[in-house]
Design a protein that fits this description.
- There is one protein chain.
- A two-stranded parallel ribbon has the order 1-2.
- Helix content is 72%, strand content 1%.
- The two termini are 36 Å apart.
- It has 22 helices and two strands.
- The protein is mainly alpha-helical.
Length: 542
């Protein structure tokens, strides 16, 4: 009996509600394999010159071949169809956005001018600078969109190849041959879960490559055995009768690398109704403690970034920056609202340190935001070891660029359009009644902050959701966990907003709306959740 046949027989027994039989089948198969391996080892020992470790050396990444050599080596270690099969809709969307911009500039210049006037230009000026117009301009924008998509695809291809040629974590096991699986370093399999390994073995067996399926499972079992040995040697007391060399008892075996766990993991989750034991509960604390410990050695850098950012922002605001921002913002409000020379618009201070307190709060927020990218960069290896993310931590730079673009785009939209419109709407009735309006500096500043920077944070919510999907958090997980997200947002809103329910809901509702927009965007990008941007790393769905 081959291993795929043993796994199939065990799965059939589990479906028939006979877990003892399934365990017995797999244990007997493992005993037969172990006996065969022991016999082969005895024959090799009789020769007198057997090597210390059987199998080929782990030399798939041997030698420093340089950048070009790494790209050449990695080009054969990447599942190109799978990689670009999950990105084609993104690249097509980029080309479509560029083409849509060209269409608006050519066919809807009035609409384009209503936005471009804020930046001192117009659709006609842009087309004149490009030297094209009419149909030629449309063709040029379509060609530019296609060229941009192809350029991004080429850059991504180079990155995928270089990463796979230098980082074992970036290797796609699907394209490896049997020999390459055996020669791959342990790091290629270190970040894989049992479910992922079982999936890869099933795919190889279905393709008729049972040798590769067996090699993948053997490499994973070797790593699991090494981990268990390391844990045992660290001082953990072994329970009686559960030693690594003893036979497995059907129904009682709980080894992490047990074949029955891989063959029937999904089915057992349904049988147990998702119940978790003490080890699962303690695992969350262990994960958080492990990640926090990885940041301990970088605490000086994090504190330094926070302090420098806080001091810089505070100095800017304290030395007149808050007044410059206020005057620039008031000039964007229609004159019929603020009056000539802003005579209907006053900002007052009721306490000598009121403005100072606001400046300190804003500076603290800026410092905390500045620290987040550094925390993500330094914590990435720990997050990867725990299975939350995948890939090289250099992707943090791309995350920072994407989130910064979303933040600045939302801030610009709020500062130029939303905030002036909101304030105009709020004061219009009072001014029509002949009332005199005066804002306290803290109230006015926070109103501007929430309608400018707050819009930037809202824009970052969908961006962050797309980025998380590229690291393994699936669309299905985000959609099924919206209740937990709502509770978390309400908790944060309750802690960081004034102590009233109205303000809490005023913050929660826009954030949940942004979360809904992110789900809609992911639904489009993942084709209804059927094609996530990356293979899920953890099971977060119900």
């Amino acid at each position: 009996m081959t291993e795929p046949e043993a796994l199939e027989a065990a799965s059939t027994a589990m479906e028939a509600d006979e877990p003892g039989k399934a365990q017995a089948i797999l244990d007997r198969f493992d005993e037969a394999v172990a006996a065969g391996a022991a016999g082969a080892a005895e024959e090799d020992a009789g020769d007198g010159d057997a090597p210390a470790r059987s199998g080929p050396p782990r030399d798939l990444f041997a030698g420093d071949v340089g950048v070009v050599g790494s790209i050449r080596r990695g080009s054969g270690l990447v599942d190109w169809r799978g990689r670009f099969g999950s990105l084609w809709n993104v690249l097509l969307g980029i080309a479509g956005v560029v083409a849509a911009v060209g269409y608006v500039l050519v066919e809807r210049p009035t609409l384009a001018d209503s936005v471009l006037v804020e930046y001192g230009t117009s659709a006609g000026a842009i087309l004149a600078a490009l030297g094209v117009s009419g149909t030629a301009a449309l063709v040029a924008f379509v060609a530019a969109g296609i060229a941009l998509a192809l350029l991004l695809a080429g850059l991504l291809g180079l990155y995928f190849a270089y990463a796979a040629g230098t980082d074992p974590d970036a290797v796609d096991i699907e394209v490896l041959t049997v020999d390459e699986v055996r020669r791959a370093p342990d790091a290629v399999f270190a970040g894989l879960s049992e479910r992922r390994v079982n999936y890869l073995a099933d795919r190889a067996a279905a393709a008729g490559d049972s040798a590769k399926a067996r090699a993948v499972l053997d490499r994973f079992d070797e790593l699991q055995a090494a981990r268990e040995a390391a844990e045992s040697s660290s001082g953990a007391d072994a329970a009686g009768g559960s030693g690594g060399g003893g036979p497995s008892i059907p129904g009682l075996s709980d080894d992490a690398g047990d074949r029955a766990s891989r063959a029937t993991g999904t089915l057992l989750e349904g049988v147990t109704d998702g119940e978790r034991d003490e080890d699962d509960i303690g695992g969350y604390y262990d994960d958080l403690a492990f990640i926090a410990a990885s940041l301990r050695s970088r605490l000086f850098v994090l504190v330094s970034v926070f302090g420098v950012t806080l001091a810089s922002v505070f100095a800017f605001l304290y030395l007149g920056g808050i007044g410059d921002v206020k005057n620039n913002f008031v000039n964007r409000i229609p004159e019929e609202i603020v009056g000539v020379g802003a005579e209907n618009f006053g900002v007052i201070v009721l306490h000598p340190v009121e403005a100072l307190i606001f400046e300190v709060k804003i500076s603290t927020i800026a410092g905390a935001v500045a620290v987040l990218p550094f925390m993500a960069y330094y914590a990435w290896p720990a997050l990867r070891d725990r299975g939350f993310v995948r890939g090289r931590r250099q992707v943090v730079f791309g995350w920072v660029a994407a989130l910064l673009a979303g933040l600045l785009g939302g801030l610009a939209l709020g500062y130029t359009v939303i905030a002036p419109a909101v304030i105009s709407w709020l004061v219009s009735d009072a001014l029509a009644a002949g009332m005199v309006i005066s804002y306290r500096i803290s109230d006015f500043a926070w109103l501007v902050f929430f309608t400018t920077v707050g819009i930037g944070f809202l824009a970052d919510v969908p961006v962050l959701m797309v980025l998380l999907n590229t690291t393994g958090v699936s669309y299905q997980a985000m959609r099924s966990r919206w209740r937990e997200v709502t509770v978390g947002i309400m908790l944060v809103a309750a802690l960081f907003t004034p102590a009233d329910v109205f303000t809490m809901f005023l913050v929660t509702i826009p954030l949940m709306a942004a979360y809904g927009v992110g789900l809609l965007i992911l639904w489009v990008m993942t084709l209804g959740g059927r094609r996530n941007l990356a293979e899920p790393t953890v099971d977060l769905t119900r």
